[in-house]
Amino acid sequence: MTDYKNFTVDVDKDGIALVTWDMQDRSMNVFTEEVMNEIEAIVDHVAATDAIKGAVFTSGKETFSGGADLTMLQKMLGLFEKEKAKDRKKATKLLFDNAGRMSWLWRKLETSGKPWVSAINGTCMGGAFELSLACHGRVVADSPAVKMALPEVKVGIFPGAGGTQRVPRLTNTQEALQMLTTGQTLSPQKAKAMGLVHQVAPAKKLVEAAKKMIIDGLKPVQPWDEKGFKLPGGPVYSAAGANLFPPAIAILRRETYGNYPAATAILKCVYEGLLVPFDTALTIEQRYFTEIMQTTEARMMIRSLFVSLQELNKGARRPEGVPAKKFKKIGVVGAGFMGAGIAYVTAKAGIPVVLLDRDMPAAEKGKAHSANLMDGLIKKGRAGAEDKDTLLSLITPADDYAALDGCELVIEAVFEDSGIKKDVTEKAEAVLKPSAIFASNTSTIPISGLAKNSKRPKNFIGIHFFSPVDKMMLVEIIMGRKTEDKALAVAMDYVRAIKKTPIVVNDTRGFYVNRCVLRYMQEAFSMLIEGVPAPMIENAAKMAGMPVGPLALTDETAIDLAQKIMKQTIRDLGPKAVEPRHVELIDTLVDKHGRLGRKNGKGFYDYPAKPAKKHLWAGLKNLYPQKQAEKVDVEELKLRLLSAIALEAARVMEEGIVTDPREADVGSILAFGFAPYTGGVLSYIDGMGASAFVSMTKRLAKKYGKQFKAPKLLLDMAESGDTFYQRFASGSSTGAKKAA
Question: Phi and psi dihedrals of 272, rounded to 5?
C-alpha cells in the first residue's frame, strides 16, 4: 500500500477501505494541493483494486474538515494576475482549469465504479461537504458539535466543486437556494430532513454505520446518473419552477441589493444547471466560478473575511517573546449589562471569573444574565442543563475587592465616569499582585488618562467590548502611552481564549471603531438637516451594504449618549470640534421631544409594543424642509455614507492609531458591519483605487463640506498608486511616517 502524508488507508476483512484524513501539521484538515493529489491517488487505487469493495472517507481528528485552504485561491488569483498582463485569454483559461480541479476530482470519485461513504464528525464545511455530497452514502455523527455548510458566499465566492448542482438534486430547489445563498449551517437532523445525508448515527458507531451501508449493497451510482432521475423540486420549466425562480430573484435582490455577485451566480448556476445533464452543469458552474474569482468583491472578501481574519485570530499582532498565558482566575468589576456579558464569555471559555459589584444583589443579578443566556441556548438545543450548571459554577459573585486576590487579569466595566473608574482602579490594585494586568472596558475615555490612576501603568490596558458581548465577535485592545508588551500579550491571549477577534489600537479619543461609527451617524444627521427624507437615508445605507441604517444605529446606542459625547467633545476641544447643526438636531430631539432612542421607546424611530414593528418617527419630516424624493441622488447618498467612514479610517491610519490594514478592515466588518462585500473600509478604497477615491471625495467635499477632505496620506497614495496593503505591509508604521 502506498504511503500517504495526510491519509491512512486500511482495508478490513470485508474488503472495505477506511480512508482516514489526519494532517499531522494542522489542527484541522484542509484541502491543499498535496491533499488533492493524494485523494486522487487513493481514488485511483480503490477503483483499480479488485479486493476493495468500497471505501469510507473519515477524519482522524475531532472534526471532519474546514474545507479548502483559501490561500490556495489567493495563489490561484496571484497567478492569474501575473499571466493576465501577458495574455488575458490564456490567463482566464488557466484560472478556469485550476478552478475545476476539485469539481472534476469529486466527479471522478462518484463515477469510479466503487461505492464511497462519507462518515462525518464535527465541522464539515465547503469543499469537504461537497466531497461528502459526491460520495454515494453519507453518515453523520449524532452530536451538537457537528456542523455542515457550504459557506463560501460569505467570503465572496460560491460552492464551485459541484455544490450548486448536487444540493438541488438531493433536496427541493427552494431549500437548496436558501442554503446556498446564505451559507446556512445545518445540524445532523436538518441535513437528514433535507435529504443531504442518509443516516444519523451515534458518534462511537459512525464508521461502523458507514461500512454497513457498503456491506448492505450501496449502489456506486449517484441518483442523477441513473435513467429516469427526477429533480426533488420538480423541473425548472414547470409550475413549481415558475412559482420559485421569479420570487427567488426578487428576494435575493431585496436581501443583497446586487452587492454580492457570488449570490447572483448561485441562482444562475442552479437555474441553468438543472436544465442540462450533470457533466454539462458542472461546466456551467466552473465557468461562473471562474468569472466570480475575477471580481473585486471576491478578492477583497477572501483576503479580509478569511485570510486576515484567520491571521488575527491566531495572534498575528501578539508581541513575540512573551510566554503564552493560561488563565486560572479573572476578575470583572461592574456587573451591569456589559460586565455581566464579559463574565459570561469568560466562563463559557472555561475560565473561573469573579463578578464584583457594589453589593451582592447587584452581583447576583449580573450572574443571572449568564443563566438567562444559557436558558436561551438550551431552548434552541445548543446546550444542555449540565452545560448551564458548569458555566454558572465558574462565576463567583462578590461585593468585596478582596475576592479579586489571585486574579491574573481584571477588567473594569463600570460607568463611563473617570472618577468612578479611578476609584475602581485604586481599590483593585490594592489586592492584586504586581504582575496582574488591569484593563478598562471604556468606549470613549483615553486609556493613557485612565492609566494615570494606576501605580503600574505598564500593566494598564484597554479591552473594549461591543454590545451585546455574547454576540459581537470583535474586541479592541487599546494601548496606553506606557502600556508594555506583556500587558498586550496577556490581553490578546484572553481575547483569543474567549474566541473573539482582537485588533490593536493606539490611544485616541473614541479609539478606532467609535470614530468611524460617529462619522456614519454624523453624515446621516447632515442629510436629515439638508431635507433628505429619513426613509431614503436608511434605505440608502442598506443599499450600500450596511446592516443597520445610521438613524436606527443612533437609536440603539442612545440619542442622549450622542448628546453627552458632543458636550464632552466641546468641553475638551472647543465648539469648533462639533458641527453646530448636529448639536441643534440632537438637542431638539432630546430636550424638546424627549426622544432618547430605543431605551425609552422613541428616537428617530417609534417603538410600539410587539407585535407591531418599529417605524420612523413621523415628526422627523417637520424638523426641516423636505426635498422631493425624485430629486435626491440615491447613489450619491450611498457614496457619502461609505466614504465618510472610509475617510475616517484613512485618518486613523495616517495618525498611527491603527497600523495594520488587516485590523482596520476586519474590525470595520465585525464591529459595525461595514459593507462586507467591499472587504472592509480600507479595501473599499483599495478596490476603487486611491486616485479614483480621492477624485470622488473631492467632488463630495465641494458639494457637502470639509468632512470629505482627503487626508495627506490618501493624496500621497493617489499620486504614487499605492494601496493600503502595500504601504502598510505587515502592520508596519511606515505608511504613517510617510504621510507625516
Answer: -70, -40
Burial zone of 233 (CB within 10 Å; 0-12 exposed, 13-18 middle, 19+ buried):
buried
Contacts of 644 (CB under 8 A, 6+ apart): 519, 520, 522, 523, 707, 708
CA dist., res. 312 & res. 415, Å (int): 30
Dump pLDDT digits (tens) for 4-62: 999 999 999 999 999 999 999 888 999 999 999 999 999 999 999 999 999 999 999 99
Name which of 82, 112, 95, 96 is nearest 17 in CA terms: 112
**Are 653 and 735 spatial neighbours (Cβ–Cβ below 8 Å)?**
yes
Which residue is it, cell 483576503?
A: 303
For residues 723 and 344, give the distance between their C-alpha atoms in angstroms, rounded to a whole number: 40
Distance CA 729, CA 410 (A): 34
Amino acid at 151: P
Average of pLDDT values for 619-645? 95
Q: Report phi then psi at 75, rounded to 5.
A: -65, -40
Q: Decide: helix, strand or coil at residue 267.
A: helix
pLDDT digits (tens, 9 = 90+) for 441-493: 987 788 998 999 999 999 999 999 998 999 999 999 999 999 999 999 999 99
**Does residue 544 have a pLDDT over 70?**
yes
Q: Which three cell numbers mark 646?
A: 472610509
Q: Is-contact 129 149, C-beta < 8 A? A: yes
The reply to whether 45 belongs to the active site is no
**What is the grid cell recorded at 329?**
482566575
According to DSSP H, which parts of 100-238 are helical? 101-110, 127-134, 163-170, 173-182, 188-194, 206-215
Between CA 556 and CA 534 the distance in angstroms is 16
Say whether 469 sits in a helix, a strand or coil.
coil
Residues 278-299 as b/e (b if ≥16 CB within 10 A, e otherwise) read beebbbbbbbbbbbbbbbbbbb
Helix (H, G, I), strand (E, B) or coil at 464: strand
Q: How far apart are CA 541 and CA 644, in angstroms?
A: 12
**Phi/psi class of residue 690: alpha, beta or left (left: φ > 0; alpha: ψ in -120 to 50)?**
alpha
Q: From edge to edge, which strands make up the β-sheet containing 116-120?
A: 7-11, 16-21, 54-59, 116-120, 137-141, 199-201
Of 136, 198, 369, 464, which residue is the catalytic one? Answer: 464
Cell of 102: 476539485
Inter-helix orientation angle 261-273/239-256, to 10°: 170
Q: What is the pLDDT of residue 730?
A: 54
Instruction: For Cα atoms 10, 15, 20, give the angle at the middle one, nearest 5 degrees.
Output: 25
Q: Report the distance separating Cα 700 and Cα 539, nearest Å.
A: 20
Separation between Cα atoms, residue 138 and residue 115, nearest integer Å: 11
Q: Which of 96, 90, 101 is nearest to 130 (CA)?
A: 101
**What's the angle, vertex CA 317, arms to CA 313 and CA 323, rounded to 5?**
90
Enclosing H/E stretch for 111: none
Domains and CATH numbers, the chain: 7-294 (3.90.226.10), 330-510 (3.40.50.720), 514-739 (1.10.1040.50)
Q: Which of 440, 452, 516 minimizes the C-alpha distance to 478?
A: 440
